[in-house]
Amino acid sequence: MKRSLGGLLGAMMRHRAAAGSLAPALVNFLKGTRSYWPGLFHCYKVPDLPRTNNDLEHCFGAHRYHERRATGRKGASPALVLWGSVQLLAATATRLRVFTAGELAPVEVRAWQALRHDLDTPRHRRTLQRRFRHDPASYLTELEAAFLKLSLPP
Questions:
Q1: pLDDT tens for each residue of 7-40
Q2: Cα dist. 93→38, 90, 97, 146 in Å?
Q3: Residue ranges per domain, the chain?
Q4: Full-model pTM
């Protein structure tokens, strides 16, 4: 693959004069390809890494499909945005092999707690947004009371 693309790019470079008004775009394309060349074929060096965007999209699509079947929703769950990094990793890993309970237990409790905190922070923000949308007056009254409690001496 690398050799084929290299040959095609070489031919494009040799015949760029025949491109006419597209010659500047061709030079720009060749320059960009040259700058990305070292990492362009990384997927062939790593086993089991999806080779194309289609393969990667298949992974995401399969996850969305199974989630829709499990939840009965027509669209993807909004939780996928919040928990997607964990859900997708777990779904992909469990398709490769079955894990035992001992393997699923957190080894580094601090790292697990940090991940939980990172995932809970956006969820908490969304909860507050929902409360504001449903009852803005009540939410602002509670916020003002909390602010006054902090600013006034005891």
A1: 888 888 888 888 888 888 988 988 888 888 877 7
A2: 29, 5, 7, 44
A3: 2-44, 50-99, 107-154
A4: 0.40
